[in-house]
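Regression report. Comparing outputs from two consecutive submissions.

Submission 1:
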Amino acid sequence: MQLNCAGKILDLSRPAVMGVLNVTPDSFSDGGRYHQLADALRRAETMVEEGAALVDVGGESTRPGAPPVSVQEELDRVLPVVERLARELPVPISVDTSKPEVIREAARAGAGLINDVRALRLPGALEAAAAGGLPVCLMHMQGDPATMQHEPVYADVVAEVRAFLIERIRVCESAGIPRQRILVDPGFGFGKTLDHNLLMLRHLGRLTDLAAGILVGISRKSMIGALLNAPVGERLSGSLAAAVIACWQGAHIIRAHDIRATVQALCVCAAARAAT
């Protein structure tokens, strides 16, 4: 299985690691560390050296309660980084955004994938993504970042996430985005309690038939902290365990902060899954 990301091929026949590059001052894990262009470039180069198959650039934090940023501010943060990385790195550059203006300009700047936590639901986002012709990742979120963790409720979290993603895929296909260019993300930590997240991880395999692949972002998240009673900087072992479980359940891309360790863990998992 392959995705053509603006001319750069992403091979999904084996689990791939997506490196997280937040060019923000306030992201939950590494906010403020890479918002200067030179720092962002060095970090991206290091991630590729450690085995990242693509780099995900984000200019607006979506942690619970995060304040929104303006279109212009997000463009100012993201575009110089995307242009430079797309020109200098051999791997596809993903852009983590929901805004149609950023989707359009990122595609023009050389991005190869649109990764949207709102699943292209903002006005104009679907049309912008369809016009850009890039693969997209559709994530499930109950509510929005400001309110999503205020007592989320589901009758059946796995069934409801699956139904939401099926509907968003249908909408994308109607807009001209073929299923072969669509990834899905169950949205760990986005409008879900710890129990919801664990159920979603346990039954992730129920999403494998929906689209071209499954992307999972679980690295260093609060569910890991809650299980281990550990701060953000001490969640590597839990993040790796969750990544391996997701890979075993059929995930194609793991979005991660700790690249080398995640690549190595997934290598072992993929080898065991392939053994006959």
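Submission 2:
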Amino acid sequence: MRTCCIYAVRMSSAPPAATATTRQPPAADRVYDHVKQGVLERHYEGGTLLTEGELAEAVGVSRTPVREALLRLQVEGLIKLYPKKGALVLPVSAQEIADVVETRQLVEEHAARKAVPASPQLIARLEELLAQQKEQAAAGDLAGAAVTDRCFHAEIVRSAGNEILSRLYDQLRDRQLRMGVAVMHAHPDRITKTLTEHEQILDALRSGDAEAVVGIVHGHVEWFSHLARGEVR
């Protein structure tokens, strides 16, 4: 099951309107989805203070499900609750970037080496995702491009056939998406470099050069660590 791509559809399109035959999700889930999507797509940027009343009005629910949703989001590390004040959207910290980069390199470089020789199915899927990301970038859909970027890398990780590593990588999904959207907004020229490096990864996979794939993946992911040190290349 391509959970990454299912998530992409959910992130890039509004939920369908409820009808007589369509049952809406529970109120707490609707609030959770509303706030989480807002944080990941930077509609609610780091440092924003959200109040229960504002969120209840925005989603059309009472305050009780809002509290439930905010507690879940606090556990996930996206917000911090302040009694009688509201929920503060936590900014992405330098340490979080460094931790995610380190974990990504460990998982992705191992998976890249195991992905060679790449199956025709993997090559075809990566070609499809790269074409989709190019279309999103051309249309200025930075949030969609960030989601597709995660899908591209997740396909390589899954191709290694290690379910434990795949689940570990999926746990990084939200953090990676949030960072990816933030980076693309702060450094819009980065998307061109990302697309070029994805092309290079594909070429190395097609040629069956495992060390080349690992080297390109390493450099591709390493760029984010420069953000943690206040450096950009």
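Expected: both submissions complete independently.
Actual: both completed, but the second showed a warning that disappeared on reload.
Relevant detail on submission 2: The beta strands are 49-50, 79-82, 86-89.
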